[in-house]
Amino acid sequence: MNRRTRTIACEDIATSVADALQYISYYHPPDYIRYLSQAYEREQSPSAKNAIGQILLNSRMAAFGRRPICQDTGLVVVFAKVGMGVRIKSAASFAHLVNEGVRRAYLDPDNPLRPSIVSDPLGRRLNTRDNTPAVVHVELVQGNQIEITIAAKGGGSENKARFTTLNPSASVANWVVDTVSTLGSGWCPPGLISVGIGGSAEKAMLLAKEAMNEPIDMSELLSRGPGNVEEELRIELYERINGLGIGAQGLGGLTTVVDVKVASYPTHVASKPVALIPQCAANRHLTFTLDGKGPAQLQPPDLSQWPQIGPEDLQTTGVRRVNLDGLTREETASWGCGETLLLSGKMLTGRDAAHKRMVDLIDAGKPLPVDLRGRVIYYVGPVRAVRDEVVGPAGPTTSNRLDNFTEKLLAQTGLLAMVGKAERGPAAIASIARYKTPYLVAVGGAAYLISKSIKAARLVAFEDLGMEAIYEFEVQDMPVIMAVDVEGNSIHNSGPIEWRKRMAADSIARNIGV
Ligand SMILES: O=C(O)C[C@H](O)C(=O)O
Known about the structure:
By secondary structure, the protein is α/β, with parallel strands linked by helices. Helix content is about 35%, strand content about 25%. The chain contains 16 helices and 19 strands. The protein starts with 5 loop residues before the first strand and ends with a helix. It binds (2S)-2-hydroxybutanedioic acid (LMR). (2S)-2-hydroxybutanedioic acid (LMR) binds near residues 72, 154, 155, 156 and 444.
């Protein structure tokens, strides 16, 4: 190893961070694509297969179009290992240099990313407008280089992070499996579950967060067999989590995780801290090294490794075409759980902040700025449009964050249907059944593909909310799956149960040699 002190220019850090964030906004890691392609081939649940197919097609389109894989372009998380033989030529802090890179990447005019960070999280929750600040972890290590692992972590999967301190004798595997079974699918499976064990509370979380960026190698591990207790746990968790039958987008199916990561660290004799963090289908991370010779040189991945899935492969039989202009309650009542619909016509958008404002207006007895009667609402916060786009990537956001507003909105407005992502909670399902207002899902992680079915976008209300404002979209053949029907039946309840049973029956059949 070269032990001379090396000087690294501040510009190299900012430029490399900006380039890396642009790169991961449109290039999935090839290992994830390889594993997801295998999951697509293997999948037997039609809805889950369709969802994985959409994620793969979206990935290829994003890579060629150099536009974000997902509308949630993430919270930037950096793990920097700074060699003690490095001198950084800068009057500013390391975090400041990273944030300069973040700012440039998110405001890049060719591929603007969605600023999703709010300051004053307890109070006014004001968007910082350039996605700063990043979360930066720095470790001093031997050597004279800086190794930076950078990730853009989606909010939906981050929301499902969990932590516990177990008794030293308790089973980590049981806690992880029980916890994953309660997470629902807002974390956008198929992805990864990463587990950190030991250290202290914050150390366990960091272990899990860092481990999820390691290469995906579950097939290799399964064929060579475990070499230590961490690897034994990885295999057990991989099999048991997939055995839950959650499947892609929680629709029920064979693949919930393509890998499980486990990292551990010595801990107190009385303790067993355990952290769990899911990684969603918008799996975005990259590691690069700076050695004083300029910014990192990032080579595009070999896109021939991306499967050639086209829209024609995603048409399932019996797709129902729906005209949103002139939609009636009789028609929405005929939609059955699990059916694929292609929506055309006008729909409104609205997510967290717009829902809060609308319900505040209802509570204050004031009129809403837009009439929701007879309309369909899509829970989305898109990326800003560029060039000839009418809207940037525009995938669904997690619907159950809006459950608290649902009863009031359905009772007061005459809304006809809702489109979002993942399961609804019991109270929202009861409201859906009470007001006969079904709930549909679009595929989380297929945002660029979905944006291509949006033919026009018009700002309608709450402009100051930025990407959270209410728009009217005109869509053509936007693919969605019926998730909760007007009787309150939910595919997110029935799908996983069905696939869990099928997998259990299959493994019984295998064990008795049928
Ligand atoms: O913020 C979003 O657009 C989506 C969010 O990441 C979510 O998964 O709910």
